[in-house]
Amino acid sequence: MGTGPVTGLPGALAGALDGKVALVTGTSPNIGGVLASGLAAAGAQVACNDVVEATAADRVARIEAAGGEALAVPFDVTDAEAVAAGVAAVLERWGRIDVLVNCAVRFDTMGILDMPVERFRRQIDIILGGAFLVTQAVARSMVERGIGGSIINILSTAAWQGQAGNVGYSTGKSGLINFTRSVAMELAPHGIRVNGFTPTATMPDEPELADRFRTAVARATEAGTMAFENLNPWPRLPTPSDYVGPVVFLASDASTLMTGSNLTIDGGALAKYWPQIPARPAAANGDDA
Q1: Local structure of residue 235 (DSSP, 8 states)
Q2: CA dihedral 99, 194, 180, 26 (to 10 degrees)
Q3: What percent of the chain stands above pLDDT 90?
Q4: Statement: the pTM of the whole predicted model exceeds 0.90
Q5: Looking at the domain assignment, is residue 270 inside a domain?
Q6: DSSP letter string, 2-43
Q7: Burial 230-241 (b: 16+ CB within 10 A, else e)
Q8: Domain for residue 139, yes or no?
Q9: Which among 108, 127, 248 is positioned nearest to 180, based on CA atoms?
Q10: Is residue 2 domain-resident?
């Protein structure tokens, strides 16, 4: 079982997923991969999916190095046959799936005036079509085995707000909101919970990725199109590790009867009145913060 330390996993959640099997799609080094490691640290056996085989294998290696048990299941979430084969591989290995985290995504930042329809359709197919196919396969396995499992769909603050120049991502993530509600209503009689989890602009834990993110934020701020760090009410942006505890909670029996709902970890971004410029306290030495 996964007992290796993961930043952001409160001690109270250690062992919260003992005996459970989780499948996480899109286990990149950013959010999906860190969540997979977090589920393993909480005791789950974790199947790591990604369309890039090396990415899934790398996450498995990290989990195993931390003392956990994991399986790489690389497949394209939009390919029905590949999804079926991937889910079957998990069932063959562990005999069940208790937790599904739909995190597979395509970042293709373009707006309505410039985005080719083929790229829009591909992005929507990964975000929504992928969630449909994987959820369908996993939910069927849960119903067949009488498992009251937990399905978690990774949303975004861009699902709840309009973001210029990001029409495919915003549309796909928004669609997941009612996908979550609809599937929750259908699966509730089977004791299967379906919830959304809403992160926001996220500072990667890994230094190299964090540097790339800071560069992108700086360019957007200079261009006057975005100011993530300056406008978030919290003094810093969240990191993937900040999401681990809340997602483990959603995956665990501690969130029984929570279904068709959403858990938001965004430093107050969605709660903020739009013109508010967050105040920052002065530094202790009297210098400007």
Answers
A1: S
A2: -10
A3: 78
A4: yes
A5: no
A6: --S--TT--GGGTTTTTT-EEEES---TTHHHHHHHHHHHTT
A7: eebeeeebbbbb
A8: yes
A9: 127
A10: no
The residue that leads in pLDDT, 80 or 289, is 80
- Helices 130-145 + 80-94 axis angle, to 10: 40
Q: What is the pLDDT of residues 172-194, one digit of tens each?
A: 999 999 999 999 999 999 999 99
Could you list the residue range(s) of the whole structural domain that residue 230 is in? 205-237
Question: Can you name the residues that pair with 72 across neighbouring β-strands?
Answer: 48
Number of structural domains in the chain: 2
Give the pLDDT of residue 251: 98
| Residue range 141-161: mean pLDDT, rounded | 97
CA 244 and chain centroid, separation: 10
**Catalytic residue annotation:** 169
**Residues 193 and 211 reside in one and the same domain:** no
Q: Is residue 117 part of a domain?
A: yes
155/62 same-domain check:
yes
Domain containing 79 — which CATH number? 3.40.50.720
Integer Cα distance of 137 and 205 in angstroms: 32
Backbone angles phi, psi at 65, to 5 degrees: -65, -25
* Residue 215 pLDDT greater than 90, yes or no: no
Residues 117 and 244 in one domain: yes
Burial class (CB in 10 A: 0-12, 13-18, 19+), 15: middle
Residue 204's pLDDT band, with cuts at 50, 70 and 90, is: confident
pLDDT at 47 over 90: yes
Residues 219 and 124 in one domain: no
